[in-house]
Amino acid sequence: MDISIIIVSYNTAHLLHEVMATLRAASAGLQTEILFVDNASKDNSVEIIQRDFPACQLIVNKQNVGFGRANNQALPLASGRYVLLVNTDAFVEANTLTSTLAYMDAHPKCGILGVRLEGRDGVLQPCARYFPTPWNTFLLQTGLNRIFKHTKMVDDMNWAHDSVRSVDWVVGCYYLVRREVIAQVGLFDPRYFLYLEEVDHCLAAKKAGWEVVFYPHTTVIHWGGESAKSEGAISQGGRQLEALQTESSLLYYRKNHGLPGAMNSLVLSGVAEVMNTCKRLLKGRQPFGFADAWRRLSLQWSLWLRTSWGTRPTR
């Protein structure tokens, strides 16, 4: 088996036929298997998979276990030399599987590979990024990145996207992993419910001596956010998703930067809120943002306590 393709579905029944059509067209000449994990979809995703794609293996969760944990569930069933994670809103070109697999075969130190990502409008998306740190996050929050121009920002797009290059991490919507990497460092840390799981995994792989590579010679059209749109929190200003992102950040910094790094991220975030509120006051902007700043700070410190200082998830 060349590639085991894992697809986590969550309320994206309207995309399943399209994503499967593009994968089948790109699988010519390869031995592939497709494994679905449905994260308790409320639409008819499970019915469509069972009816229209009976050759695919399917795991049906009774509750949403999160992105990373769902992908981990499929690993015992995967038999490919490579494991490919594909989102239901990511559509591959006809040469995507063969060209990325050929590159990995020719470069045995490449452990994880991502590709060029474009939106439906053809605009290039951030697809190969730098690792987040408390410092570069603070600079972005305050706009001070315009002064500290040599600091590597997470979503820096000011580099040529036309050649293969080693990067810090690649986006999980098309995430090709060598089987040996999984055997050595595992796949995703199950503490992350959503956000930063692939960042953490790429960091672990690089620490183990593997390369993470951006491969630009094929493109995946990535719609982005299709599953998140179905979260009830979206209608409430996205606060549940904001909480998940904040929690993942705390878990990531504590795990990879230690207690001092996690505390530093909290302090710098607080300083950023104060600075931004003061700027609004000085510029006479209405509203001044006191309530939003207080809500965000309260959320961060509440999750800091609920995660036992960034050591365990809340769900």
UniProtKB/TrEMBL annotation:
SUPFAM superfamilies: Nucleotide-diphospho-sugar transferases. The keyword Glycoprotein does not apply. Signal peptide: none annotated. Keywords: Transferase. GO terms for molecular function: transferase activity. InterPro entries: Glyco_trans_2-like (IPR001173), Nucleotide-diphossugar_trans (IPR029044). Residues 4-125 form the Glycosyltransferase 2-like domain. This is Glycosyltransferase family 2 protein. It comes from Rhodoferax lacus.
